[in-house]
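Task card 7
Instruction: Convert sequence to structure tokens.
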Amino acid sequence: MDDANGTIFTDFILMGFTSFSRFHTLLFTVLLSIYSITLAGNVAIILVTWLDPHLYKPMYFFLGNLSFLDICYTSSTVPKMLETILSEKKTISYTGCVIQLYTFFSFVGTECVLLAAMSYDRYVAICKPLLYHSIMKHTVCFGLASFSWLSGFMNSVLHTTLVFRLPFCSSNKVNYFFCDIPPLLSLACSDTSLNKMMLLIIGVFIAWTPFLCIIVSYVFIISSILKMRSGSGSRKAFSTCASHLTVVILFYGSCIFNYLQTFASGTLDKDHLLSAFYSFVTPMLNPVIYTLKNQEVKLALKKAFFSKGLFSQ
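Output:
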């Protein structure tokens, strides 16, 4: 059905997996495994940070938020991806596409700000240890987490509205795994310069400013660690930051690559596998990284799942 400005579609076709159609069983198995590990790992983190009194600290409050965010993050896209791998139609409804883009972009924005809040917590803990408990009160932690979630959802309202106000041309084939902004813009038959400009402008506040805050925080953190006289103290301080810093590098590295190459190359074509990395691989790795790098989380997991006989014979 056509209107004066373009074609009105009732659905979109997700083309991301079409070039891998011969390996659909393998792709389904791999993606389902990644999703299952993501759910299991992040649920385990949420449970131990909620149930273990030793983890009633601001650092683990934010970690619980991050794990819940990663569950929402992957659940906004992966179930539909699993469906399209096995389905011949590979379609998503227009409304479903709107909801998917809104939720996915909300969680991306939230994670950007939440990672900055977590770096601030580490900055206060290492650079101002005597003031830590007076600064990182429950109200402050709750406020930072709430601001992270609110920022992400408000950011997504703007971008989702700007994308779906555009008229789409004769093709409804989305050249990606799910409904994301760059591939949808490539289907528009009107000027998308406003969308690209807003991605850059809003990105300064939702992505680049938090990223800059993280960098500044770690400059002070590393400086403080290097000044510590105790070798064990510096190792302990670094270990509490190593997992968060690894997550930041993985998330921001893949996310920045995904969105900036659109503007650098002047085209919306992307390496699908690389750009999808932060979409579902990073959320799977987060609980693994925190488990490997953090002794308190390791002990809490052992206490919760092994000492009570859940995995013992």
